[in-house]
Amino acid sequence: MNLNPKQEEAKNKIDWPLLIIAWAGSWKTATLTARVNYMIRDKWINQSEIMMVTFTNKAAWEMRERVAKTLWVEAPRSVYTKANFPLIGTFHSIGIFVLKDVLSRYLSDELAIWLKKDFVIYDESDKLSVLKNILKNRFNLDEKEFPARQIAFFISNAKNNLITAKWYEAEVDSSIKEVVYKAYIEYEKDLALNNAMDFDDILVKTLAVLRIPKILNEYQERYKYLMVDEYQDTNAPQYEIVKLLASKYNNLAVVWDDSQSIYSWRWADMRNIINFRKDYNDALIVKLEQNYRSTKKIIAWANAVINNNKSGIKKELWTDNGEWEHISYIEAPDDKTEASIIVNIIKNKSSSGLPQGKPLQCDKCRDAPCGCPVINNYKDNLILYRTNAQSRKIEEALMIANIPYRVIWGQKFYDRKEIKDLLSYLKVIHNPNDVIAMKRIINTPTRKIWAKSIETMDNYRDNFGLSYPQIIENIDEVEELNNWAKNAIKNFNIIFEDLVHFSHKKIVAELIREIVKLTKYEEYIWEWLSKEEKESKLENIDELVNVATQYNWMEPRESLAIFLEEVALITDMDKNDERSDYVTLMTIHTSKWLEEKRVFVTWLEEWLFPSFRSIWEQAALEEERRLMYVAMTRAREELYISRAKERFNFWDFVRNPESRFLKEIPLEYLVNYDLWEYLNKWWFSFWTSSDSSSDSFSFWSTSWWFTGKPKVIVKANNDVSMFARGDRVSHPKFGNWIITSLNWELAEIAFSWKWVVKMNIKIAPVRKV
DNA sequence: CTCGGTCCTTTTTTT
DNA sequence: AAGGACCGAG
């Protein structure tokens, strides 16, 4: 790929502070790749002296891929690979990398942190259960008055502003902060006792370690060339980390775009750029303003919207691309119609659904529209919304139309009970001090170790400073427990020790299987679930094993440790998809790293987008507007924006005025979608397509997690006479419903008391309960 | 006291 | 979907 002069300039300045202002679609990733390649191939810089920080793991993966390609080597699978290759990862993964390295070479005392090498990472729910325990059992506080979530928020806020528990006292100015202060101290104690870190700690501890001159010096010498992408979304600890690392050689390049800063709620601080300018007042500034992604009309629109923001640099994004299609505005009467219209547009524009599936794709079109009669795939469509919960209506419409899709959620897969259970086993095997994990699994599956026994052990732990494994091993000494309880605990210990033993011999994938076997986890699932749920849980377990096989090439205990670390940071969106043909749905936040040929931006109503939480405050509102800008600039060729006059939201029907962002868009390119003509067609096709004669009709479900493979839940062919009005039916996706009306095959099914959905009961994957 | 079943609530955005 | 509250059975 040829770089333009600006990109070339950014590529060549490698031994000087550099600020790359790179606006949406300016091929900054390509520029960064070229820059790394230039360092290595032209300037003979040692590969392992280069560090690049990305915002997501997905971006890191892609970056490693791209860099590897230009170097003709295979891309390392993770940050941890010891090969001679640049270190490319997120702040969090690099932080863990640093901590592990340092902890293996120094004693914790020297580092002035309590962390030990086998630390674990607590996710949001682990964090909450630690806090709940503190608030309820130690402080005896009412959860309504002092919700754990809120306390967690304050603590997180403190950490990200680099305020330690000890120093928090100065912040106390209200009764809630009084509680926060006390809880913060206890919380830190608990983490230390469990050798655990939360997400914020990863950054804070990394910074703490780098503040030790000797260690800082080591790292400065090791990584002399630094690059930070998405610099506008860095927070205080991240800023400090970068500043320290770069302070010796000053070879720091940051990529920045204030119009795409959408993470202030995670304490991203836009002022970091001001600090950067102060720290490096001689930095070279390069502006990449040419957009290679979108059509002229889309760019003009996006510019118009973003320039309504008072703060930030004025955007002068431009492009050489053609004008192409107008942008369409869909103003639907209600949310169901909104979803139907979108789905129908996709259906009409896609050739993938055709029975004989024509050969797809013109090679030229991959990079830019070439004017050929382009054939469209489902995968060319990206549907965006403000919050995860908004995917539902669109999913329904897609299911009815039999279009494969996948929903990308932030985390989800690792939030599922069965996955958390199995991971907790792994965590306890890895680090027996992990109390949260221990408590989760000690009685899962049920082995009659009840709350009372656990409470007793907790007391021992608190009063004598013993760890759970120590207590369990010497359970006979615990006087408060009767023999019956002791035996239950001993039985657990037998399994546990077997597993620990096993973990030294076999890799983590096999260890997971062994856990399922020894704990009789399948039987446990068997007992309390319906068939579909059970199957999906078993599939999830298989998938977990599948993911774990990536670590097969390592030593057993190493595979366990690294698997756990990566799992803590991985989210749903990080997994590479296999380019199968499906429509993708996700939040705008998640979409930041990608682009698509045809993009739909939905729910453009006041209160929803911009969110009702943001409209009262200028700064928050401007962030919502940036979000709109990000959404629009994802589109390469076609952009649709939609709203519904009435919709079901927050458990009620609401009518909100159109979003202010709509009014900020210049009318000249706007086309109103022809609703009425279209609606007639749609209803017609809707009823005929759900005709019972289509035997091969199958429902595609969400398979938002890991594999990215859409899969068939049910090819239903129900006996309609089985159903009657008033029946309760269960749907694998939507749960239990009630049939409120039934007209031949067409049923109206109610979820809660107000929300009614029509579906064809013969083919819908429902069954009677 | 201890357990297990049922009903109710939850939801901004994610490393 | 899953944790918490609540209640009835043992």
Give a description of the structure.
With 769 residues, the chain is an alpha/beta fold. It is 43% helix and 15% strand. The chain has 27 helices and 25 strands. Strand 2, helix 3 (57-71) and strand 3 (87-90) form a beta-alpha-beta unit. The longest helix has 23 residues, at 483-505. The radius of gyration is 28 Å and the shape is globular. The termini are far apart. Residues 353-361, 365-369, 682-715 and 751-756 have low confidence and may be disordered. The structure holds a DNA duplex (15 and 10 nucleotides).
- Proportion of β residues? 15-25%
Supply the number of helical segments.
Answer: 27
Rg calculated over all Cα atoms: 28 Å
General form: globular
Coarse structural class: alpha/beta
The major beta sheet can be summarized as:
8 strands, mixed
Average pLDDT confidence is 80
Report how far the terminal alpha carbons are from each other: 59 Å
Q: State the helical fraction.
A: 40-55%
Low-confidence stretches: 353-361, 365-369, 682-715, 751-756
Number of strands: 25
Outline the fold blueprint.
Layout: H1 5-12, E1 18-22, H2 28-42, E2 50-54, H3 57-71, E3 87-90, H4 91-105, H5 108-111, E4 120-122, H6 124-138, H7 148-160, H8 175-194, E5 196-198, H9 199-210, H10 213-222, E6 225-228, H11 236-246, E7 252-256, H12 272-279, E8 284-288, E9 290-291, H13 296-306, E10 318-319, E11 327-334, H14 335-349, E12 381-385, H15 391-400, E13 405-407, H16 417-430, H17 435-441, H18 451-464, H19 468-473, H20 483-505, H21 508-518, H22 521-528, H23 531-548, H24 556-569, E14 583-587, E15 596-601, H25 618-632, E16 635-649, E17 652-654, H26 660-663, E18 670-672, H27 675-689, E19 700-701, E20 711-712, E21 728-731, E22 735-743, E23 746-751, E24 755-760, E25 767-768
Parallel strand pairs: 1-7, 1-8, 2-3, 2-6, 4-5, 6-7, 9-10, 11-16, 11-18, 12-14, 12-15, 13-14, 15-16
Antiparallel strand pairs: 16-17, 19-20, 21-22, 21-25, 22-23, 23-24
The protein binds a DNA duplex (15 and 10 nucleotides) through helix 4 and helix 9.
